[in-house]
Amino acid sequence: MTALTLRLRNSGHLPVVAGALCTLGLLLIGSLYSKNFLSSDYLLLQLQIASFLGVVATGAMLVILLGGIDLSVPWVVTVGGMMSTAAAGWWGGVGEAVAIPFGIACGAALGLVNGIGVAYLRVPSMIFTLGINAVAQGLIVLQTGGFAPQDRATPAMHLIATGRSAFGVPNALLVWAAVGAGTLFLLHRTTLGRSIYAVGNRERAAYLSGVDTRRVTLLCFVIAGACSAAAGVLLTGYSTKAYQAMGDAYQLPAIAAVVLGGTNILGGRGSYLGTIVGVVMITLLQSILSVMQIPEMGRQVTYGVVIIGMLLIYGRGQRHSD
Amino acid sequence: MPTDAYFHLREHRATCAAAALFVLLFAVYIAKHQVGWTVPVLTTASNKAVLLAIVAMAQTLPVLTGGIDLSVGMVFVLANCLASHLVVGTPMEAAFGVVVVLAAGALCGFVNGAIIVYGRLQPIITTLATGIVYFGFSLGLRPVPGGDVQAGLADALTGTLPGGIPAMLVVLLAVVGLVWLPYRRSVLGRAALAIGSSEAATYMSGVAIGRTKIVTYTVAGLLAAIGGLLLTFVTFSGEASAAIGGVYTLNSIAAVVIGGTVLSGGAGSAIGSIFGAFALRTIGDLLFVFDLEPLWQPLFQGVILLVAVSVGSLRLLKLDNRLDLFR
Questions:
Q1: Do A138 and B299 touch (CB under 8 A)?
Q2: What is residue B214's predicted lDDT score, i.e. its pLDDT?
Q3: Contacts with A, B 158-187, CB within 8 Å
Q4: Three-state DSSP class for A286?
């Protein structure tokens, strides 16, 4: 038993296994409340909802791996949803065709500004992304206040977010799977991926090894912006319309999911598998808490306590003396 | 040959810059204001600004140690909800309520510190989660906005002293004198800055890192609770609003940065954060005196924030060694 624990600890997969066990535990607790929790319908629905958070968390994870943090998630998600529907309204048939890429491109553009600020102006990511969040909010308020654009999701967005393909697998889940596969490839099979881990461990060393660390940082923020906006597009399709502050519910869960998945918040260490487990865990936790018949107060307190508890079990740092 | 005064000034250069920024913005505000430099205008402005200033002070302490407290806004809201229940009735009862509210805030901070030190979790994620818990408690205390506060105390603290000085500014001075200065001048305060510079070196020097951090987070919780208490005196009610908590947390970080405290820790001062908070509030008010279309307001605020935090990048122009760019 101890040998197994040691091997797990050394392999770096301990958080993934522990997270998976916690997820199973959550499912068992949930099944005490309702038999539905173990049905495939319910699980597929949860995975469909989890895909929105999963796409956001993908971008958040890349930035956290660099040792930064992206606090512009809420309004970049909203920009993704708002701008894609607006494009469909402005340019008619053509607009409907380019709505999704346009929304994602707007998010990527905000990510680009984030990247320029963090990588080239060397402003700490926590404060610069906060500023971009405010700017994105300002732009949306201006854009929707001056002349109300269309906010209805296009049929294509609706299909991607709520449709089911073969075997009843939700399309949104397929989107997350594609994004996830791309991220796994990026992190483990490309130079950029290795560079991301290197920058997160020690940017100075990475720079001296010939990595253009600023370009790596810039690219990560662009991807993160695109991911957030893509989640906004999905969310718009899911709820059939885009609305202000639609991304507010995604900032904290995304960071929590990444950290619960074993990614070091200081950067340099973490696996995408862990992030997937973290996202599923957070989604299940939220679902169980909303099914349980307890007041909002109890829900919030349990949510926070469970996150801390799980981190205390397997996410602790090293002692000074180590 | 540089003198002592030169080094002294250099150490406080960031604080002075924040103060200058505030004076400049406030001068423009007063000049453009229809009524201008009058007692009611000053009192209203200081009532709003002091709330953020005290929360920004709370945020400064953890940042000095290289950490961060994302729960300050929620402790602020929790103190507000608690005060709307307890700070009522006779002056004696109200005074007891004030003590309980401040103790509750300090306890929240202590819990943050204890989890960070003994649980060995990162401050950012710990306070993110405890913030959710504290917000849950606020919801339990005030499911719907409401409550009351002792009117005599509230009027005294949000009104004007003889001579036209806003009472809130005196409260702020008292907080600086009773909480910040003793903390900063103590061994603990110096240890906190040392931890921010280099935690490993501080550990090697035999400084009690755990105790320092716990006290730092506890004082931060206390300060946030003072802010929440004052909010109750301004609004005469308690409200468990996630939006208020979030806005105060985020603005406190912005105020800390504008005030010249380095986010990676080790350098800065709560005095700078006060001026940072004042400047931030004045920016918000400037929009009204310039008759800017209200729709432009959020964008304007965001851009100003970005510009303010990017000014520090000017130092990149005079780097001797490009390696200094990177950690």
A1: yes
A2: 96
A3: none
A4: helix
- A121 vs B313: CB contact, 8 Å cut-off? yes
β-pair partners for B161: B165
- SS3 for B37? coil
Residue of A nearest to B246 (CA): A248
pLDDT-derived band of residue A8, with 50, 70 and 90 as boundaries? low
pTM: 0.88
Closest CA to B77 of B123, B137, B127, B124: B137
Listed in sequence order, the DSSP H helices in A14-124 are 14-33, 40-65, 73-90, 92-115
B206 φψ region: left (φ > 0), alpha (ψ -120 to 50), beta (else): left
User: How would residue A313 be classed by pLDDT, with cut points 50, 70 and 90?
Assistant: confident
**Among A213, A297, A316, beta carbon nearest to B121:** A316
Q: Could you tell me the maximum CA-CA distance found in chain B, to the nearest angstrom?
A: 65
Secondary structure in 3-state letters for A148-192: CCCCECCHHHHHHHHCECHHHCEHHHHHHHHHHHHHHHHHHHCHH
Residue with tokens 């960070």: B116
pLDDT at residue B3 in the model? 75
- What sign for the dihedral angle of Cα B59, B60, B61, B65? positive
Q: What is the spatial distance between Cα B148 and Cα B150, in angstroms, rounded to a whole number?
A: 7
First to last CA, chain B: 31
Q: What ipTM goes with this model?
A: 0.85
Helix, strand, or coil here: B160? strand
Paired residues of A241 in beta bridges: A152
- Parallel, antiparallel, or unpaired for β B165-166 and B160-161? antiparallel
Contact check, Cβ <8 Å, B120/A202: no
- Top residue of A135, A258, A303 to mutate, by most chain B CBs within 10 Å, is A135
| Contact between residue A128 and residue A114 where contact means Cβ atoms under 8 Å apart | yes
Query: A127-141 burial string, b = 16+ CB within 10 Å, else e?
Result: bbbbbbbbbbbbbbb
